Amino acid sequence: MGQRGEPRRVQTYDGELGAAVARAQDGDEAAFAVAYRLVQPGLLGYLRGLVGDDAEDVASDAWLEIARDLRRFRGDGAGFRGWTATIARHRALDHLRRQRVRPRPAALEQDVLELPGPHATHDQALERLSTEAALALISGLPRDQAEAVLLRVVVGLDGPAAARVLGKRPGAVRMATYRGLKRLARQLGADGVTDDAPRTLGEST
Fold first, then answer.
1. pLDDT for the residue numbered 46
2. Contact by Cβ (8 Å): 205, 154
3. Which of 30, 67, 109, 147 is in Cβ range 3.0-4.6 Å of 175 for a Cys bridge?
């Protein structure tokens, strides 16, 4: 899944986000609020896929850490989204450990496998879902596939950035994303998605 499948709004906001982060690092509280507004929807969607109804609490913990360590961040808007996703994931895993919930182990992925070309039906299937419905479906995927799809589609990270968040190789994340989207497309019937389905996942990121 290439950049074509990433939410367009996330890409558009990266320039604004990078500028806001730079100002926030100089102490501009209003700029930090702008950064929060741009990042929080996707981050919260990602956390909902990991911890369900506890996402708001985990997001609050993550933002406390983000604010505390903001001056240490180096990068642009896209890099900031990846950095915040990494922090949020650590807080989510801490939360799961406290809840004594063991995440399902990630399946081994093979980087050497060649992926077929982009399949528009997978993207179209996701774009016809509301965020709530999409997260419910994604949560039923194997954990490695669910996280890859959440980071790529909901947070809007590219493949290498998602791989850094997950601590995996880009090829493994690419394969997990492809398998996850293919499974979702099968569940939706891909071409059989009805016109009365809620609109886009990207609209709420």
1. 92
2. yes
3. 109
**How far apart, in whole angstroms, are the C-alpha atoms of residue 185 and residue 126?**
8
Task: List pLDDT tens digits, range 36-62.
Answer: 999 999 999 999 989 988 999 999 999
Phi/psi region, residue 189 (left: phi>0; alpha: psi -120 to 50; beta: rest), is left
d(CA 170, CA 162): 8
What are the pLDDT digits (tens) for 102-150? 544 433 333 222 333 334 445 554 555 556 677 788 888 999 999 999 9
Q: How many Cβ atoms from other residues are within 10 Å of residue 11's Cβ?
A: 14
Max Cα distance, the chain (Å)? 51
Encode burial over 102-120: b for 16+ CB neighbours within 10 A, e otherwise.
eeeebeebeeeeeeeeebe
Separation between Cα atoms, residue 205 and residue 152, nearest integer Å: 12
| Residue 4 main-chain phi, psi, to 5 deg | -55, -30
Number of other residues whose CB lies within 10 A of the CB of residue 100: 6
pLDDT of residue 139: 82
